[in-house]
Fold this protein.
Amino acid sequence: MKRLTLTFLALFIVKSPAFATIDWESKGMQIAGEIIANPAGFFYDFQQDLESTTPLPPGKSFGIQTGLFPTTIPMTYVNGSGKLRLHGEGRLAPGVPQVDLIGGYWDMLAAKMATKDSQTIDSAKFNGYYMGAIVSSSVSPRVRTFWGYKHSVLAAKLKFKPGEEPDFLGTKVSSFDTGFKDDFLIAGIETPKGVSKLWSMQLNYGLKTQTFSSKVSWYGKYFELGLNIFPEGVLVFHPVWNFHLNF
Amino acid sequence: MKKILLSVFLTAGLAGRLCAAVAEDSKIFTPFFDMTMTEAGYLPSEGNIFSGANINTQVGLLSKVTQKDHIFGLYNFNYSGAGFAPQDSKQFTDRSMGHNFTIEYRRALGDKFRVRPGIAFGHDYSRSGANEAWKNGLYNMDTAGYQLAGDYMFDTEKNGIMTLTYLGKSIKFPNYTDLLREFMDPANTAAANGGLQDQNLKQVSLRSGWNNFFGGVTYTQQDYKNQKVVANTGIYGDTKQKDKTTALDFGFHHKLWVFEIYPVVSYTMHRSNQNFMRYKFLGATSTDLLNGSSDVSFIAKNYDYNETTFSVPLDLNITGKWAVGGAISMTRRAYTDRPKRDENNNYISGTEQTNLMSTLTGSIRKRINDVAMVRLFYSLVVASSNCKFEKYMPYNYTGNSFGLSYQLSY
């Protein structure tokens, strides 16, 4: 299979006349400009990477999670999330779905260190939290759909020392004090990939800001691998690696 | 305009999907879930690399009130991101996002007939490369409407069905403004902002499916509420704009040994009574509007075209999980009256503009289980046209795109 895959890729990723040169410098400028235009949006995409918005596995009462990549490394988002099951599927009556509470908090370690040690940064504060609920219901032995709500908040404040303001694209930036706050609706579907391994796909949609993302995740007993996609974000692809335990 | 037609045809296509949601005998509620997501990088022959996504999420619930009476509710989220598109449709960087709701009542009349009245409403956002806020999109639109559909079921073993659907919709563009009119007469905001794109849409379609073959004919009429037709004097007359579109399509999805093929072919005839005034620059004037080389030219029936599209995707199932695929697709639009243009925006009389966009795709597909799959793909796009004026919209280019897509449906 691997050989076939490589052969196939070789066939199609040949240098064709249609290939143009990629202007990386221009692309970098564009990305920097988008970050400056909306820093809170840029940092919030990383918050979504650590937000645990899938339901607890059937039979589990609570769970904890911490985001490893790209949150703790390299963004230094020290973070913790928790889930608590309020109602197991079918417990009260047949057909009544599972209900989980979700929530979490993060704080950027680099911002604290920069405030303490940096010669140019006067103060920096980057943190955020989220909370919400997930309702999940099995629609067949192999498929579970889930629906949810989350309230997400992010604060991003940065102030440079007088005379040390950096120059971004020809403009001196002395400080920014911004944030992000929105209420999201979540819709997703989960299906088993193997023994104790699950595959899910979900859509998160912010009602006020029209921010949205698509999360594709594979998770087992300890780890979650994911690919979060932010079509309107600065960095469209976020590969994600999270650690979790469910009890 | 393209967006409306696309959403209309999606609605027509969705009718088939809606029919596919069938209540399970043992359940009062049967969920319907379909989520597809594609993310790709695009590298055009001119311009820089960019990325774009397409997300379509449908969540629905079919409620069996009685054996004969069902209610089906569906929510559809659709995002269409930056990407290559057929000429004269949209810029690479244009994006759109829609929320649409449909509620349908189904009543069985015997074993072979069923009626499906329903209502639909939605809100669509648009966004250009300028990254304006979604709520400020020039082409944001609100839709509200109703449908009446009748199904005739035959040859149940091979899922034979014939559906006649009537759809009526009111479409409003709250943000739309005619930028040219605003520039020419800034004081007269009523002329520029007065719901010029607002319209009533009527659609009749007759579709059939049998043994994984499907096809149909769809007739759409768009009656503009305020937009008047521009006359060959360059002045708007009293006649309101009216567009009519007739589309025929046919396709099938069949498996033959390890091959899986699902081609679709369609032919669309679009006719509008609207004409076009081409200004070479703001403030341009001309005394000879019928001369295609003037600074201001009048083009009658500028928007009339015939369009042929076909796509032939083929998957070769190597194992139960893995498949390699190839697809070729083509969109050819021939304008019936619009002449082609040279590099200087001059119309060449005695000619007609023709656009062609061809796409060759190779892919690897992995089926994760019976409800989920992932596909890695590469596409080569070749767009050509005899229109050589490309200051605002590319007509002749090649491009590469590469990306991955996921699908989960239940």
User: Anything to note?
Assistant: The two ends of chain B are 32 Å apart (CA to CA).
